[in-house]
Amino acid sequence: MSHAKAIDIAYVRFTAPDLDLMETFLTDFGLTRAARTEDSLYMQGLDGAPFAHATERGQPGFAAIGFELEDTAALDALASATGHAIEDISDPGGGRIVRLTDPDGFRVEAVVRRYAASTAPATRSPLNDGRSQTRLNATSRVAQGPAQVVRLGHAVLNVKNYRVSQQWYHEHFGLIVSDEIEPEPGVAFGAFMRCDRGDMPVDHHTLFLVGIGVSKYNHAAFEVVDFDALMAGHSHLKSKNYHAEWGVGRHILGSQIFDYWRDPWGHTVEHWTDGDLFNAAAGSRKTPMPDLLGVQWGPEAPPTMME
């Protein structure tokens, strides 16, 4: 049993000494400004969420991860079970929040927020390929510039003890295992975990816990509109001389087409599109270690992905 069930990841929080530099990078990455004060920056995608990435002025670092709950009843249940107070959210969009700390010391925030209407663009032009030619007497033109980021899709955390952390996120947010990574049979190294929304399909993973023995932010991943948006974003970030870490390729686990970059302080952020969706009935799998960073196509993973 879990105290409450998350319906999605909400946002990630960071600290950085230069909000201008962070905003410039995130704008080039494909997010737009939601709000800014002297010491805070909030950036959003196209899904109507108040923000997906927040930065407070300070020394460079990862600050927190947020999970969206379905309603205030779920938030009440979590607060009651954990003995933590429910507070009003002072961030853009308002709402209610419960602030927790996980076994590795990461700040974890459970929120119920108000969403605006999505501003994601309409369906793309038809595609012509070797099986079907449906676009006739019309051209295909890809918008140049930053990728069109829709939403934050998942985060990855390195943890001291995978099993302890996995149990905590299941107990507090109802997250269930999609793929548990086994270096050898019966030995668990980490897991891709998804939200449990019953029959409703959700992303293959909302949180990935990597049990490498240390607590550290690994990366956060933002869904873009489509493959063309991802490639346009790659070209744009490359033209700005940002640090490309890994990509473009297609993962084995989750199946996403991916492209990883570093922000000005070395935090890894990912563009992705075309990921797998599963409902609760799809269950869980035991998966061998080579599939963890394996690709269906694209470059091999650099060692930095497991640091």
Name its key features.
10-stranded mixed sheet; 307 residues; 15% helix; alpha+beta; globular; 8-stranded mixed sheet
Oligomeric composition of the shown chains:
single chain
Task: Report Rg.
Answer: 19 Å
How many angstroms does the end-to-end distance come to?
33 Å
Helix content: 10-25%
The major β-sheet equals: 10 strands, mixed
Strand order of the largest sheet: 19-10-11-13-9-14-17-16-15-20
Strand fraction equals 35-45%
Number of helices: 4
Unreliable stretches (pLDDT < 50, length at least 5) are: none
User: How does the helix and strand content classify structurally?
Assistant: alpha+beta
Look at the structure and give the mean pLDDT: 96
Shape: globular
- Tell me how many strands there are: 20
**SSE order, one letter for each helix or strand:** EHEEEEHEEEEHEEEEEHEEEEEE
Quick structural overview:
It contains four helices and 20 strands. Strand 2 and strand 3 (40-44) form a beta hairpin.
Could you please describe the fold and organization of this structure?
The protein is an alpha+beta fold. It has helices at residues 19-29, 72-82, 162-173, 227-239, and strands at residues 6-16, 32-36, 40-44, 53-57, 61-69, 86-88, 96-101, 107-112, 149-158, 176-182, 190-194, 202-203, 207-210, 216-224, 243-251, 257-262, 268-273, 277-278, 285-288, 295-297. The strands form three sheets. The protein has a ten-stranded mixed beta sheet. An eight-stranded mixed beta sheet has the order 2-3-4-1-5-8-7-6, covered by helices on one side. Strand 3 and strand 4 (53-57) form a beta hairpin. It is globular, with a radius of gyration of 19 Å. The mean pLDDT is 96.
